[in-house]
Give the backbone structure.
Amino acid sequence: ALMCALFAPWIAPYSPVATNPVAILEAPNLFSQPILGTDNQGRDILSRIIYGAQTSVKVGVLSVLLAATVGTSIGLLSGVFGGWTDRLLMRITDMFLALPYLMVALTAVSLLGASVGNVILVIGLLRWMGFARVLRGEVLKLVEMDFVRLATVSGASRYRIMLRHVLPNIIN
């Protein structure tokens, strides 16, 4: 799908939006064009699928980047600060995990509008919890290591420890 999305203008046999009234609802034909047939406006279905991969890849990549950013931030803050901050952030994470994902996503998109940007936003903001949980565990391990303890003893602030010592070790 990624290759189709990247090279859609060169792979697609026809324009995905060009209509052909003569070719309305043509049957698929494996030995000639159109391979997958045409729709009710005469547009080539294969070309529309290839170009549609661009939207799918964009939504997938950007929503995962948004979820990873939010989840990394929450996991990092939770693990480094600990105490009531950790408990609060993990209870918020639990609350989001308990939500019925599909119902919330459909409601949010219907309220915000069905645009690609809104779909990316909703998916990204409903899928960060896994990142937060996993990274919190990694941060809790790192905070107990000697180099972080030495940074604490030397007087480094929690933000400096978080950004200079912990984040580079969990970024992979």
About this structure: The two ends are 25 Å apart (CA to CA). Residues 131 and 166 are 15 Å apart (CA to CA).
